[in-house]
Design goal:
alpha+beta; Rossmann fold; 2 domains; six-stranded mixed beta sheet; five-stranded antiparallel beta sheet; 22 strands
């Protein structure tokens, strides 16, 4: 075919649509391939041919169609940290072309969730509570690094408590009745949002109340419970801490017992880590241990190991920020329980966001001091970075 004829045929074919138009070339201008996207995102396309239509598809769903330049569309991909797939489908003269883009999510090591750490602090001078400290009086260090306090309160945070009362044979002679009277005294001083659960134990769990704010519910129906059996204090403490696992806010365990454990299957090396993870304040109201030998032996432990268990119980109390309180006679038990509630209501509550938290599960050592001379403070000694 002569060149002139070929040219004429080509022009005729083009004018009649006999030859197909060249497919459009399409590419993404926005977003960038390495861009992490959240919420509203502008999608911008560049199309080389005279396209008549560009469809925008996001995560497999059509987000809209644009029929003339500029080829852009605003879409909302939501707040979740996920990968997204964007597709463009352009049409020109019956021909179609597409482009695909996948945007990444934030890498896990870029996501750091920093939880507010709260410390419940008792401040005293000469054994008496100090009520007028200010935020600026406190110095908090986490792993040796000074922290900025973001919340500060005193006594206004509700607590959830488990009262563990020894009902073993050492509580005969009116001692168990005095202990239940102490429970009622504790409940009488609770504020409306405080809640308490009572667990009576010996070598097994003898009775349990629900969590409640009402004193009469705590000890209902317990008048007929007799003091008998051995003492499984470690097991009871483990159960009490477990009951607090699903409770939020300030957690408290109050143990009334002579502390001489004769029947627990668990030793304190198993219970102490649970106590640390729970961050519950532990108070031990230590009775006189009437009816038991000073150097106790049992099927589980000899006298030396019983001494070790008592040391570990004291350690659990100390690291929690609680304290050991002696109640040498039944007559003083109710007042000891009242003193625990008053102390809980006198707590300073300090909150901070750790400046170097990594969520690696390590134990973080925390220290609280006050700048006012002569003031002693007591609080938990740290937390697991979870």
């Amino acid at each position: 075919m002569k060149p002139a004829i070929a040219l004429a045929v080509a022009m005729l074919a083009a004018s009649t649509g006999w030859l197909a138009a060249a497919p459009p070339a399409v590419r993404f201008v926005k977003p960038a391939a390495d861009q992490v996207v959240f919420g509203e995102v502008e999608i911008v396309a560049e199309v080389s041919a005279a396209a008549t239509r560009v469809e925008f598809i996001v995560d497999g769903v059509s987000a809209g169609v644009v029929t003339r330049p500029p080829w852009r569309l605003l879409v909302d991909v939501g707040p979740d940290n996920v990968e997204h797939e964007f597709r463009l489908v352009a049409e020109a003269g019956g021909e179609r072309a597409g482009a695909t883009l996948r945007t990444p999510r934030v890498a896990v090591d870029q996501e750091v969730e920093v939880a507010l750490q709260q410390l419940y602090v008792t401040a005293t001078t000469g054994g008496e509570p100090v009520h007028d400290l200010r935020r600026s009086d406190f110095v908090v260090t986490d792993e040796g690094r000074s922290q900025q306090l973001v919340t500060f309160a005193r006594g206004d945070i509700p607590f959830t408590a488990v009262l563990l009362v020894d009902a073993s044979s050492s509580m005969t002679g009116g001692r168990l009745g005095a202990a239940l009277g102490g429970v009622r005294a504790f409940a009488d001083l609770m504020k409306p949002l405080d809640e308490t659960k009572l667990l009576l134990f010996s070598d097994r769990l003898r009775a349990a109340s629900p969590f409640t704010s009402f004193p009469e519910i705590l000890t209902a129906g317990l008048e007929s419970v007799a003091a008998l059996g051995g003492t499984a204090l470690n097991d009871a403490l483990y159960v009490g801490l477990s009951r607090l696992e699903e409770r939020q806010g300030r957690r408290v365990v109050v143990v009334l017992s002579d502390g001489i454990d004769t029947h627990s299957a668990l030793d304190m090396t198993r219970v102490l880590p649970v106590a640390r993870r729970s961050r519950a304040l532990i108070y031990w109201i230590r009775t006189s241990g009437a009816g038991k030998q000073a150097r106790q032996t049992s099927f589980w432990r000899d006298a030396k190991n019983h001494d070790v268990e008592l040391d570990r119980l004291r350690e659990a109390v100390a690291v929690s920020g609680g304290r050991v309180i002696d109640a040498p006679s039944p007559d003083g038990v109710a007042e000891v329980f009242r003193s625990v509630v008053r102390e809980l209501h006198d707590h300073y509550v300090l909150g901070y966001y750790p400046s170097h938290r990594r969520g690696d599960g390590r134990w973080h050592k925390v220290r609280v001091e006050v700048t006012r001379p002569g003031v002693a403070v007591r609080t938990s000694d740290g937390y697991f970075d979870r």
